């Protein structure tokens, strides 16, 4: 279901809302930037976060005469670091995809969006720190809690950015109900899974990490359930109209 309305001009009546305009990145407004510049800056922060993730992986230091014999065991000892890197890379990648989905919907922005986006990016560039924690202290419940809370906060902030822009069509001209609900349920369920893993960690830390894999089936199940519910609602409306 799509709702629409005419865009509101940020230059009238002192409104803080600022249109991106039709000429893209050449359209500068009173804040001195365009929507495309906000996205470009955000992409740069995501790139920095992913770069910091890989920099946490250190090459094993071995004597040359024993390298052939000891290197396989040294690499095996790095398996917690590789695992944490892969998980964090995929999570940051999911946030990057979600961020582009959100900003692809926005037609304008305001100072509230700028601050929310900055806070969200702050949590993204922070991810390498808890990643290093669970790499170095793979059996630590405290390290896992810091990591899980960090990812959950990022997911909830991304949902907040979507809600902020879509609510009352503040920053969009129309709202696709299907896309909006699927996005909100998808990323909020991701945050919930990481928060629930904290409770699982009090039983077993390793089990809590495997619990994160619940994201994969839950995403498909929630998506399917929402599509079914939305189709039922459409069917009910068509019957009511008839």
What distinguishing features does this structure have?
242 residues; mainly alpha; two-stranded antiparallel sheet; 4 strands; 4% strand; globular; disordered N terminus
Low-confidence stretches: 1-14, 21-32
Strand content: under 5%
> What is the spatial order of strands in the main beta sheet?
1-4
Gross morphology: globular
Biggest sheet, open or closed, and with what strands and sense? Answer: 2 strands, antiparallel
* Class from secondary-structure proportions: mainly alpha
Number of strands: 4
Helices, strands, pairings?
Blueprint: E1 2-4, E2 18-19, H1 35-55, H2 67-77, H3 79-105, E3 108-109, H4 111-126, H5 128-136, H6 141-166, E4 174-176, H7 177-201, H8 205-211, H9 215-241
Antiparallel strand pairs: 1-4, 2-3
Helix pairs in contact: 1-3, 1-4, 3-5, 3-6, 4-6, 5-6, 6-7, 7-8, 7-9
């Amino acid at each position: 279901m799509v709702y629409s309305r005419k865009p509101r001009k940020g230059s009238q009546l002192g409104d803080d809302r600022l249109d991106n305009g039709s000429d893209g990145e050449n359209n500068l407004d009173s804040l001195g930037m365009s929507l495309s510049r906000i996205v470009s800056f955000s992409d740069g922060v995501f790139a920095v976060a992913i770069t910091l993730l890989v920099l946490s992986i250190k090459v094993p230091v071995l004597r040359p005469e024993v390298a052939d014999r000891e290197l396989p065991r040294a690499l095996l000892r790095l398996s917690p670091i590789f695992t944490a890197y892969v998980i964090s890379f995929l999570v940051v990648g999911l946030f990057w995809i979600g961020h582009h989905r959100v900003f692809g919907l926005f037609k304008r922005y305001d100072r509230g969006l700028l601050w929310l986006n900055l806070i969200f990016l702050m949590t993204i560039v922070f991810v390498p720190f808890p990643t290093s924690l669970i790499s170095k202290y793979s059996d630590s419940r405290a390290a896992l809690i810091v990591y899980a809370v960090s990812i959950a906060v990022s997911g909830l902030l991304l949902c907040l950015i979507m809600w902020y822009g879509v609510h009352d069509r503040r920053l969009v001209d129309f709202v696709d109900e299907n896309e909006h609900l699927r996005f909100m349920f998808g990323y909020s369920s991701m945050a919930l899974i990481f928060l629930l893993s904290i409770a699982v960690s009090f039983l077993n830390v390793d089990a809590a990490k495997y619990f994160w894999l619940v994201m994969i089936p839950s995403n498909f199940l929630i998506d399917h359930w929402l599509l079914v519910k939305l189709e039922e609602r459409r069917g009910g409306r068509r019957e009511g109209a008839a």
